[in-house]
Amino acid sequence: MAKNFVFTSESVTEGHPDKVADQISDAVLDAVLKDDKYSRVACEVSVGMCYALIGGEITTNSWVDVNNLARQVVRDIGYDKPEYGFDYHTLTVFNAIHSQSPDIAMGVKVTGSKNQGAGDQGMETGYACSETPELMPLPIMLAHKLAKKLAEKRKNKTLPFLRPDGKSQVTLYYENGHPKGLQSVIIAAQHDPDVTHSKLVEGIMEEVIKPVCKDHLDSKTKFIINNTGRFVIGGPVADCGVTGRKIIVDTYGGMGHVGGGCFSGKDPTKVDRSGAYMTRYIAKNIVASGASQRC
Question: pTM for this one?
């Protein structure tokens, strides 16, 4: 890796269409595993205008009210008003779940002579570095914290004009391989139609960007907030969301490598998730031990 460079990472809010799909997939997984830890789950979700299509394969001894569970996730995210065009009151849920293929099940079942196997082959990469207390790259951590702060300020009514959808992006410049400061911060935040652009920009600068990025800002940092001037129509109304379409956001923001699949909605026999967690655990321990600054 070059010593002097700039690096960009992005994140998305909980109301981003792809993240809505991820959260429904994981909510189904959690609910199924709660009552039957040996369940086999590969839950895939697509969301769009007024609908959530829930598919994939589940083999379990538990029962989950998938339809109302999906509505509860959508409500908790904040899609709770008809004017959003996508809200939990009127959400149509299509349940297309079926059981796991017996050919796959044959490979993952524990028998008297065989330990649990994996349902598929996969390539998984774990990454860690000493840039942050979380042992994660600084660009993706700042992007995540910006997205989280947008949701926090929306839900506690500090910025009541915000709506659930949004994205964050940061670009840091590195010197001698270490982050030195922020070149730019970009925020795209969905909002109510009656808020002025100047009020929105001021609110996001003071309540979101400065608290999160204060230690990394300098006189040259550029700020780009809702640059088109309007972001009222958003969420699944504006863009179809699908489980697993944000694997860079879910891993290291483009630093290091990613594996062959996403994490959401998968039980531990899917190495896309469990293998990635183990490789991250190994990399994190190598860095935490002081053996390396980057692994």
Answer: 0.93
